[in-house]
Backbone:
């Protein structure tokens, strides 16, 4: 058997198989839980079949890995699992995926879905044809996305599709790392020995988890400067393409990589050197047993412990008379800060052992630059003087910015709008906050386990790579559908798509912003309704509206730094921040007639205080029935709600 | 450990120009960079060893259209739109040194278009910082790497680099 023949993605195909009768066995049983029966029923001479039958070493399995590649497959399978296999006790099964960000427990509570649509002979025929992973995903896609990887209630949070793809990645990462066991050590030995070797290697073998945020030094002001985004997109696509096995999450500027120890983060530089992109990174080396998708987990834990300690200190000091507080503070602080200091020591120890690193990597950073300096990025010597044909302005560019500009004006619609008068545009950006994503998924997972009455939900709700990958599929579908809906609402000729999550829309009036919000809200309800229940939504929407001639970089500073779930800025008119949980209510508010709203908006232009007085007056309550509710019950700032009035009244 | 003087800065209108390429729009920096405040204070005090940096706590953005005129031909060039910060409140931290003597309250001019009436700032001494705790966080101003110790920055974890103008000598111009 050779490694090349084994298709790790197919290893769990028996999970799609209906319960089957085997000779000598009473009743129909699950082939996946009884691989030895399948193995003896019809032995196929290929490595994938071996992988399908021998990738477990748990107590219920009679056949187990007996070669190095099957051993790696077993390990990859566990790395790609939705749970750590030991935490969730079996209280029932459901074959359908419970999406933490979508499904409500109430809706699935009394359903016990059984989804195993294939028969064994069909599966064996597929394996015997030496099918590849592409054949597997193409043929069974519709089944794989519905079937949960683990049917156990509480563990059924990722699809077989995500798990299969991820197992393939981890298998190749482990192989790339050069991890292997001599076949002789695994051949003809008992399951106990295999288990011992597994436990030993799980605590010995290391993987590096790295989070990368790509950055650029260019300050894009004009349309042609926006080529930088096309360069960013092509760079990310190339990295995703060439390093696909190592990338476990990818957004338009952010990547999560798992690298074997023998590969350095520097391998990214070859992709970034073309445009001199730089990046921030956080990296953590962890044993396979403890590997966690967030390399900054310890830092976050330390931050939480620090906050808890400060709260405790405050509470304890309040119980002491004021005159004695200063003296008592040292002792109180010492005892309350103990867990935080312990965590800091743990971090320091990891840092000193080079197991944890964070920093910034630049491709080319000059110690000094002799004039002229590049006018666009101001980070390299300008070696390419050129005269802009349209404006006849002389520009001094570096080799990187020259390359970006050479790639032509890609945003033709936007370029055309800038030569017209009175055009208004709304820039909008959707982004993912990875830190909040991990917290929100954990919060939803704890809630799910609590609903199932599974003990120790906080400890068991571990967010692993598979959940994040599962989320990514839905996020990509959400973005794609959002783009489609925006184009169908505003017309293709009025939408400039810079990135999948960065759009510029030619709008007629500010109240078109409300249309964008309605599209966003309906898709959030369809894809991520549960994020309306979490403390903060990991998906952020920023809309910045202005005259088309307003410099893009000013928009970008706003778009790139979301402060709330939804940030809206009407340049020169006002800003507003909206919590995702309030969006539906906001859109359904009865704000009163258009004339009254227009009056209120004009009043707010003169004085916000005056407009506020109007809202809270008896007459205001009559004219704008729900405005007081928005401020006093939903908690909107008066300034936010006045901006919304300006949107509605335009 | 260095000691600092904390001053509150108040200004009605301030233009802290960013050096950018981009037609006619000139945005303002939203922080008080080492170079801006240090050079203004050095000019005011005559103390060449002075170092200071600051942050802006609150301001309101407005725009001012300005058209530079050629003095001899009296022809105006393309008008520039300049971002102006109004009702600015901020804090500046001045590194204490033996030669430095500053009044509790004084006025300086800062930033661009001073001749047009912008940049008048009032500084009021708040506090002398002798003891403070160093914590990890995101730097809210811009300081040259070589002076980071003066501001008690022990380690830069994720730097964001940019280049500063610095004269090589009194006559040979500038390096970045």
Residues:
């Amino acid at each position: 058997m050779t490694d090349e023949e084994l298709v790790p993605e197919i290893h769990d195909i028996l999970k799609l198989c209906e319960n089957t009768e085997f000779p000598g066995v009473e009743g129909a049983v699950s082939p996946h839980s009884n691989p030895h029966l399948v193995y003896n029923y019809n032995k196929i001479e290929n490595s994938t079949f071996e992988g399908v039958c021998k990738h477990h070493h748990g107590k219920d399995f009679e056949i187990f890995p007996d070669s190095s590649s099957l051993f790696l497959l077993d390990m990859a399978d566990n790395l790609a699992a939705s749970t750590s296999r030991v935490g969730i006790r079996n209280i029932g099964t459901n074959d359908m995926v419970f999406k933490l960000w979508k499904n409500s427990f109430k809706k699935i509570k009394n359903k016990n879905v059984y989804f195993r649509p294939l028969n064994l002979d069909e599966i064996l025929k597929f394996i015997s044809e030496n099918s590849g992973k592409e054949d597997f995903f193409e043929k069974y896609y519709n089944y794989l996305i519905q079937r949960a990887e683990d049917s156990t209630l509480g563990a059924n949070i990722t699809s077989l599709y995500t798990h299969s793809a991820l197992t393939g990645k981890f298998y190749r990462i482990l192989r790339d790392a050069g991890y292997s066991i001599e076949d002789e050590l695994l051949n003809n030995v008992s399951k106990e020995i295999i288990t011992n070797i597994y436990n030993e290697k799980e605590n010995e073998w290391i993987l590096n988890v790295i989070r990368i945020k790509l950055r650029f030094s260019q300050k894009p002001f004009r349309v042609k400067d926006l080529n930088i985004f096309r360069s960013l997109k092509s760079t990310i696509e190339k990295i995703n393409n060439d390093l696909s096995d190592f990338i476990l999450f990818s957004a338009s500027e952010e990547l999560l990589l798992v690298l074997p120890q023998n590969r350095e983060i520097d391998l990214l530089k070859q992709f970034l050197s073309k445009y001199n992109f730089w990046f921030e990174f956080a990296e953590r080396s962890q044993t396979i047993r403890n590997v966690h998708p967030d390399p900054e987990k310890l830092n976050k834990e330390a931050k939480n412990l620090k906050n808890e300690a400060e709260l405790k200190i405050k509470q304890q000091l309040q119980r002491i008379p004021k005159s004695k507080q200063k003296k008592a503070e040292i002792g109180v602080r010492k005892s309350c800060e103990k867990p935080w200091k312990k965590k800091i020591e743990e971090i320091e120890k990891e840092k000193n052992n080079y197991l944890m690193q964070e920093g910034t990597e630049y491709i080319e950073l000059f110690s000094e630059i002799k004039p002229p300096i590049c006018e666009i990025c101001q980070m390299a010597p300008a070696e390419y003087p050129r005269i802009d044909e349209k404006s006849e302005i002389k520009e001094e560019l570096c080799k990187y910015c020259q390359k970006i500009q050479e790639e032509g004006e890609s945003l033709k619609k936007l370029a055309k709008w800038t030569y017209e008068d009175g055009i208004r545009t709304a820039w909008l950006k959707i982004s993912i906050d990875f830190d909040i994503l991990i917290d929100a998924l954990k919060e939803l997972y704890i809630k799910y386990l609590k609903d199932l009455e599974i003990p120790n939900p906080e400890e068991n709700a571990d967010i692993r790579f598979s959940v994040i990958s599962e989320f990514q599929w839905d996020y990509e579908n959400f973005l794609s559908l959002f783009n489609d809906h925006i184009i169908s609402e505003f017309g293709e000729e009025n939408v400039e798509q810079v990135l999948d999550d960065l759009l510029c829309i030619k709008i007629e009036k500010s109240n078109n912003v409300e249309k964008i919000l309605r599209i966003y809200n309906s898709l959030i309800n369809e894809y991520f309704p549960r994020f309306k229940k979490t403390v903060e939504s990991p998906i952020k929407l920023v809309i910045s509206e202005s005259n088309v001639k307003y410099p893009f970089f000013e928009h970008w500073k706003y778009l790139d730094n979301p402060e709330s779930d939804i940030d809206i800025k009407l340049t020169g008119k006002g800003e507003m921040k909206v919590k995702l949980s309030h969006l539906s209510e906001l859109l359904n508010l009865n704000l009163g007639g258009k004339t009254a709203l227009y009056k209120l908006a004009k009043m707010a232009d003169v004085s916000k205080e005056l407009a506020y007085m109007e809202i809270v007056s008896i007459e205001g309550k009559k004219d704008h029935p729900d405005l007081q509710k928005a401020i006093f019950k939903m908690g909107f700032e008066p300034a936010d709600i006045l901006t919304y009035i300006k949107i509605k009244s335009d | 450990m260095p000691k600092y003087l904390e001053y509150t800065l108040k200004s009605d209108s301030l233009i802290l120009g960013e050096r950018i390429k981009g037609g006619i729009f000139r945005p303002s920096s939203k922080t008080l960079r080492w170079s801006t405040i240090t050079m203004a204070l050095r000019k005011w005090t005559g103390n060449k060893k002075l170092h200071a940096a600051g942050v802006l706590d609150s301001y309101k953005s407005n725009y001012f259209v300005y058209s530079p005129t050629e003095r001899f031909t009296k022809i105006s060039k393309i008008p520039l739109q300049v971002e102006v910060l109004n009702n600015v409140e901020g804090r500046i931290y001045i590194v204490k040194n033996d030669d430095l003597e500053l009044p509790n309250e004084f006025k300086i001019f800062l930033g661009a278009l001073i001749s047009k009436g912008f940049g008048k700032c009032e500084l009021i001494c708040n506090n002398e910082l002798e003891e403070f705790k160093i914590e990890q966080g995101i730097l809210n101003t811009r300081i040259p790497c070589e002076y980071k110790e003066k501001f008690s920055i022990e380690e830069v974890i994720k730097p964001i680099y940019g280049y500063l103008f610095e004269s090589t000598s009194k006559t040979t111009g500038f390096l970045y």
User: Anything to note?
Assistant: The radius of gyration of chain A is 29 Å. The mean pLDDT of chain A is 89. The longest strand of chain A covers residues 206-215. Chain A touches chain B at residues 215, 217, 219, 221-222, 225, 280, 358-360, 362, 365-366, 368-371, 373, 375-376, 378-379, 391, 395, 551, 553-554 (CB under 8 Å).
